[in-house]
């Protein structure tokens, strides 16, 4: 949620041969409505089911691609079969500061149903942090680095991992 997945992915595709896809974008186009609307109208379980459909497609059909996922996608059982898992890490308060300092901040916050209640969002972050770390093949600390710096580090670490 707001750690910079999209921004880093855009830099990666500029400086490498990778293509990138974003699971939330795929879901929005499958449903022809926003993630926010899907949560509002159908609830979270319905959304997670769509993530499952996407995860199976990614596992079976997608290679050589940087996949940005929504913050809860890591719960998909086949995550590790999809590819190398990269965790972009930063303290909760730094992530929030970033989102808030963006000129489009209010809109960005609104788009993220689980960020609407900041106390709950912080609890979710605390709960997920050890799970993210346990699943990650690569961890990148994105604090105080530009998206381009993060992209370069990501490509280097992926190459070393392969
Ligand atoms: N490395 C960075 N340094 C400063 N701000 C950043 C960086 N990466 C992203 N941002 C800003 O943080 C916010 C969230 O970034 P975004 O790429 O949309 O995150 P995500 O895809 O993880 O939700 C945006 O306002 C973006 O401009
Ligand atoms: O953390 C989560 O469970 C979610 C994060 C969102 O994506 P971002 O991480 O890109 O904000 C989006 O998939 C949905 O609102 C659920």
TrEMBL record:
Positions of ATP binding: 2-7, 112
Annotated Gene Ontology cellular component terms = cytosol
Claim: Cytoplasm is one of the keywords in the record: yes
| Keywords, alphabetical | Amino-acid biosynthesis, Aromatic amino acid biosynthesis, ATP-binding, Cytoplasm, Kinase, Magnesium, Metal-binding, Nucleotide-binding, Transferase
Major location (coarse): cytoplasm
Q: How is the cofactor bound?
A: Binds 1 Mg(2+) ion per subunit.
Location(s) in or outside the cell: Cytoplasm
Q: Which GO terms describe its biological process?
A: amino acid biosynthetic process; aromatic amino acid family biosynthetic process; chorismate biosynthetic process
Binding positions for substrate per the UniProt entry: 24, 48, 71, 128
GO MF annotations for this entry? ATP binding; magnesium ion binding; shikimate kinase activity
Position of the signal peptide: none
Which coenzyme or cofactor does it need? Mg(2+)
**Catalysis performed (reactions):** shikimate + ATP = 3-phosphoshikimate + ADP + H(+)
Q: Which InterPro entries match?
A: P-loop_NTPase, Shikimate/glucono_kinase, Shikimate_kinase/TSH1
The UniProt transmembrane annotation reads none
Q: What does this protein do?
A: Catalyzes the specific phosphorylation of the 3-hydroxyl group of shikimic acid using ATP as a cosubstrate.
Q: Hey, which family's this protein in?
A: Belongs to the shikimate kinase family.
What subunit structure does UniProt give? Monomer.
Q: Give the protein's recorded name.
A: Shikimate kinase
Q: What is the lineage of its organism?
A: Bacteria, Pseudomonadati, Campylobacterota, Epsilonproteobacteria, Campylobacterales
Q: Which gene encodes it?
A: aroK
């Amino acid at each position: 949620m707001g750690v910079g997945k999209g921004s880093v992915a855009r830099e990666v595709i500029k400086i490498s041969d990778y293509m990138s896809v974003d699971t939330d974008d795929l879901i929005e186009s499958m449903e022809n409505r926003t993630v926010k609307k899907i949560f509002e109208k159908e609830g979270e379980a319905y959304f997670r089911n769509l993530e499952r459909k996407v995860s199976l497609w990614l596992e079976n059909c997608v290679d050589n691609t940087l996949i940005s996922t929504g913050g809860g996608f890591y719960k998909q059982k086949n995550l590790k079969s999809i590819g190398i898992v990269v965790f972009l890490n930063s303290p909760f308060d730094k992530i929030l500061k970033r989102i808030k300092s963006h000129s489009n901040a209010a809109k960005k916050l609104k788009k993220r149903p689980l960020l609407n209640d900041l106390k709950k969002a912080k609890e979710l972050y605390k709960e997920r942090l050890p799970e993210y770390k346990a699943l990650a093949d690569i961890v990148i600390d994105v604090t105080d680095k530009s998206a381009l710096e993060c992209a370069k580090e990501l490509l280097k670490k992926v190459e070393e991992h392969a």
